[in-house]
Amino acid sequence: MQRSAKPFRSVQLRFRPPLSYFILVFMLDFEKSVVSLEKQLSDLRASAKLNDINVASVISKLQEKIDKLLKQIYSKLTPWDIVQVARLPERPKFSDYLNGFCNNFIELSGDRLFGNDKAIIGGFAAIEDQKCIIIGQEKGSDTDSRIEHNFGMPMPEGYRKVLRLFDLADRFNLPIINIIDTSGAYPGVESEERGQAESIARCIEKSFHVKSPMISIVIGEGGSGGAVAMATTDYVLMLEYSIYSVISPEGCASILWKDDSKASVAASIQHITAKQLYDLKVIDEIIKEPLGGSHRNKQLAIEHVKDVILKYLNTAKLTTITERIKNRRMKFQLMGNNYLN
């Protein structure tokens, strides 16, 4: 992966994520039985390799048991369970997808107005032989990178970077791929001072005028206006265990009941899962995840996303610019009617 600019200094963290973000690193409650079996399998493989013994049949049976248990668990997930899976730090991040299926990536930094927001990464790339502009929200994969990327919460300059990339896509007639993974736009005072709401609104407005094909994919959290700013596209897709919402369950619970401990109740009524949003015609397709979620097989998840992107890029070629813009506008105008009906 090539990058054209030196990285900017790290963004100083001014926002403390909820405690649940860190708890998820250890273990999901509904996965305890599976994690125990997976540890046994890992220990068995290590012991067999160390002692040079053949336990293939035992390993095969244990793996079958794990797969069966995963199918049972993941077929009964509640919306709150899916929220927890979507937030797992072990899930593949935008940088994983970027490295996984993009060639000759050239990063374009800064908004040419204020500075560079590392919560959003974007630039020129190629997926197989398809040249494109790819833009994504990056959460980071460890403590240092999470702080560097501000936990994937963009500032106004991040969204103005997106606007700049939209213009470049139109200029060079390149399709746009937006990868979404954010709990929301950064809520700090400095964001408001620099026009957070205005920058998000301009992204949405600009999306209705972009001539290039536009595809957005929610890979984890699609939170609030921070996600909508990049999801006003021809095709909106979601990974099977991702979420997409106007407000987080904790925020919703705080507003409705003045008690964020009721987040699980809020999640159950918000319609934030991929299946619920597909039924409401808010999204166009659910991308199947590997058994037990993308965090269990990152490479397979990346391949699934790549295949779907290429499919929709080929579909987009069948429409004219006029049809594309008209259909995009109509798509979002009809969403309210679909919900009410």
What would you note in describing this structure?
The chain is an alpha/beta fold. The protein folds into two domains: about 25-75; about 85-340, 2-enoyl-CoA Hydratase, Chain A, domain 1 (Alpha-Beta Complex), CATH 3.90.226.10. About 50% of the residues lie in helices and about 15% in strands. The chain has helices at about 20-25, 30-50, 55-75, 80-85, 95-100, 145-150, 155-170, 190-195, 195-205, 225-230, 250-255, 265-270, 275-280, 300-315, 320-335, 335-340, and strands at about 105, 120-125, 130-135, 175-180, 215-225, 235-240, 245, 285. Strands 1, 2, 3, 4, 5, 6, 7 and 8 form an eight-stranded mixed beta sheet that branches. It is globular and about 60 Å long. It starts with 18 loop residues before the first helix and ends with a helix. Residues about 1-25 have low confidence and may be disordered.
